[in-house]
Amino acid sequence: MIRTILILLVFFIGTQLHAQLTPPAKPDGFIYPPGRHRVDLDTILIEAFYDPVCPYSRDSWPPLKQALKHYKSRVSLLLHLLPLPYHDNAYVTSRALHIVNIHNANATFNLLEGFFKHQAMFYGAQTQLMTRPEVVGRIVKLGATTLGNSYQHVLKSGFNDTKSEHATRVSFKYSASRSVYGTPTFYVNGFKLPDADTPSKFGGWKKIIDSLVQPHKGTS
User: Which residues form the Thioredoxin-like fold domain (predicted)?
Assistant: First the structure.
């Protein structure tokens, strides 16, 4: 039932995009590895759509990260955020990632891994009696622990800045424009991987990528 409702929601948003969405100043997404400033068009491009408090996103990250380390410059990753409406605190944690990325893109994936490691802190049962400022306070504390004390001010001030809110909304709308309604979702060189083919282990990614980086026998 929830899946059906979200599909309808994404379809409705998608039909309104041309009228409502002004193109952002730069493309959506976080480039991996940290420090890389652009996606090389000669590499295999993986686009991952993640929710910071989605356990399936969390579980899919280690094998994907292993593949990126294995193939190095032959593969690029562009990670998009899709804060799912049925995951408590998905939007506010996604916004925290945008805040950090605006301040220092090299730290974005460290915070993402911090959310994955301590994901249970932001599940509904853990925060259902907390106010929104209290949840933000928990995020600020985790950010400072993960990235250093200087990020306490960065995150606090960022939640009062409209830049991060706008960036988070753009991420959601961009995901809808790509017909993405669940996480994790992966695209490889612009083509969506079917759910049945979504890799859950390094071997799955290796099978996909090897077929692209190695020339096919018998072809000219």
Answer: 46-210
pLDDT over 50 at 19, yes or no: no
Q: What's the one-letter identity of residue 142?
A: L
Choose the CATH number for 2-211 among 2.40.50.100, 3.90.1490.10, 3.30.950.10, 3.40.30.10: 3.40.30.10
The whole-model pTM stands at 0.86
What are the tokens at 216? 């096919």
Among 95, 82, 93, which residue's Cα sits nearest to residue 182?
A: 82
pLDDT (tens digit, 9 = 90+) per residue, 119-130? 999 998 889 999
Cis peptide leading into residue 33 (ω within 30°): yes
Burial class of residue 130, CB neighbours in 10 A (0-12, 13-18, 19+): middle
Task: State the number of CA atoms in the 13 A half-sphere of 7 facing the CB.
Answer: 4
- Determine the average pLDDT of the residues in 106-128: 94
Tell me how far apart the alpha carbons of residues 1 and 215 are, in angstroms, rounded to a whole number: 44
Q: Hey, how many other C-beta atoms are within 10 angstroms of the C-beta on 106?
A: 13
